[in-house]
Amino acid sequence: MLLLPQALVDGLLIGGIYITIAIGFSLAYGVMHIIDFAVGEWIMLGAFLGLYLSQWTQVEPLLLLPVVFVVFAVLGYLFQPVIHRVLSGKKGNPLLMALVFTFGLAIAFKGLGLTVFGFFSRSIPSAMAADSFTFVRGDFFVTIPVIRLIGLAYAIAVTLALSWILKRTDFGLAVQALAQNKEAAGLMGISAKRTNSWVYGIYVGISAMSGVLIGCMFSISAQMGGKYTVFSFFVVVLAGMGFLAGVPWAAFLLGMVQSFFLIYFDPGYTLLAVFIILYAVLLISPKGLFGKGV
Amino acid sequence: MRRGIFAFWLFIGLMAVVPAFVQNAFVLRIVTELFMWIGLAITWDVMAGYAGYLNFGHGAFFGAGAYTTAILMMRCGWTFAATLPVAGLLAGLAALLAGIPTLRLKGAYFAIATWALALAIQQLALVLDITGGPDGMRLPPFLHPVFFFYVMLAVAAVTFLLLWLLLERASFGLKLKAIREDEAGAMALGLNPARIKIQAFVLSAVPAGVLGGIYAFWITFIDPASVLADIITDQAMVMAVFGGLGTLLGPVIGAIVVFSFKTLFWAYLADYQVLYLIILGVVIALTVVFLPNGIWGTLTGQIQARNALIKGMAIDPAQGRHPEQGADSND
Q1: Could you report the predicted ipTM of this complex, rounded to two decimals?
Q2: Cα dist from A105 to A48, A254, A293, B25, B191, whole Å
Q3: Which chain A residues have a beta carbon less than 8 Å from that of B109?
Q4: Domain spans, chain B
Q5: What is the mean pLDDT of each run of 10 residues along chain B (331 residues)?
């Protein structure tokens, strides 16, 4: 029982990071109806860019987040036309083919990561990593590492920025229109091609930035992608596919699952628990916890 | 059709006499493994090509079968032959359980769930005691390459024949294709899509489990990093996609091409093993963009188009959507 406050706080803090690995993904699904199997691989590539940049420039990795975002947003923007071509193909089942395509990408990125970065785990050295606050009241105590607090703050900032863009700008209006009805949006003069490219760029940029934060908190390796792909799938399915407002709650739930397994059970069972919850949700309420998925 | 049956038996007959002429253990091993991959590729294609649902956890059924055989032989003292039906049954049961909630939904959910299932089973094998955890399991060595050659050949051939009968001869294949093309329409015709898809999923998982069981006894050592690795699904998938989805021969041809390439790559460029992963991924991505019907689908599409041209028949462009009718699908 003494560890209960710690478990809750940890879950909240880890959950923050899971918001950011899933929110861009959910946005991309909502607009383009594409499941991107390479999501974990984008996170991995972003993390390594952060690692090498901070080693090279000797700058605090957290200050490099905007640089990583811009690099990967441009990459994603330039990459999207290929996916668009697959998705708008007339042969076979385009959605199926797009899934196969992103899966192939994920394999290729993983191979690329293993070739360039090797098999070893590393972590990104941040000046904030060592500090923490400790609160003690009676027998209870809570330790909050500064870096995780920054992670949560970053997650909240990204979520707010994204919701501001979607609700308050013309671009956001275009994105929403596209998600609701592609043909009608096209008739209103919205270029699906260009808007999708921006959405994909934003999603890839956010995922890559989250990779850097993950690298500051935990360790990174070329094989890390698969695990984060499953986590972001989990969050997105629980939230309801494409339902952005559900993402934070599902992410916090995943954070809680992880921290409780770490403290009270065997962390080896975390992925099993994740699958069982996913299974139960698909069985009972496939449209997510809030029933608002598409 | 008659020619097809003839070619099938000719191929089996030719393969059956291979061990009489080839004494080289390495070659036998390669061909045995090729049969295994043919089996995995065609069963993966049942879901992807015929039902239109992508199974990203095919390797999990293979691994579950391998572990079933290993556990029954080592912990319960069963004989090898007795474990194979159980390996297949267990893989089928896993498919049934995973399919019930997910196959009612859109393909995206199924893809996610099978991928998560594969990771969960991998994790389970790592933490359980009965599977030996990360150390894996050792089986009693049984050094008869020819025996395994015939067992793999038999299972792969029976699987192929069964799938051919069910998917190309019986109405089951037509029902699956109807659901793939238009689920609401298929329902209006009185079909039960969820049930048919679950049947197809179990049908694709059972042979994978049996092949896994044989593999465990053949290689005599299994661990999560070998029989439950992602690369098994990845490879079966690239074989089927590259060969041609929605056909039975496509994945077979894809398996032969990809596996030959892999063997050569491993033999001559073993220092660059991770490069293989890059090539695999790039091949999948490029095939999707430039050759969505695979090599076999494109080839048959071209032959059909030429025959149609010769006969002076008009081709309805709308029919070119399916790989097996792909008259206009060869750009």
Answers
A1: 0.83
A2: 17, 26, 26, 36, 36
A3: 237, 241, 282, 286
A4: 2-228
A5: 77 81 83 93 92 90 93 88 92 91 84 87 86 84 86 92 90 90 88 91 94 92 87 90 88 92 84 81 87 83 78 54 43 37
Distance CA A272, CA B35 (A): 32
CB contacts of B323 in chain A (<8 Å) are: 92
Is A100 in contact with B117 (Cβ distance < 8 A)? no
Of A106, A114, A271, the CB nearest to B274: A114
Q: In chain B, which among 276-305 make CB contacts under 8 A with chain A?
A: 276-285, 287-289, 292-293
**Nearest residue of chain A to residue B54 (CA atoms):** A96
Nearest C-alpha in B relative to A81 = B289
pTM attached to this predicted model: 0.86
Q: Which amino acid is at A4?
A: L
CATH topology of domain A4-284: ABC transporter involved in vitamin B12 uptake, BtuC (1.10.3470)
Rounded to whole angstroms, how far apart are CA atoms B265 and B287? 20
List the end-to-end C-alpha distance of chain B, in Å, as a whole number: 28
Spatial separation of the C-alpha atoms in residues A106 and B160, rounded to whole Å: 30
Dihedrals φ, ψ of A267, to 5°?
-60, -20
Cβ atoms of A78 and A96 within 8 Å: the answer is no
CA distance A287 to chain B (A): 10
Please calculate the CA angle A18-A20-A26 and round it to the nearest 5 degrees.
95
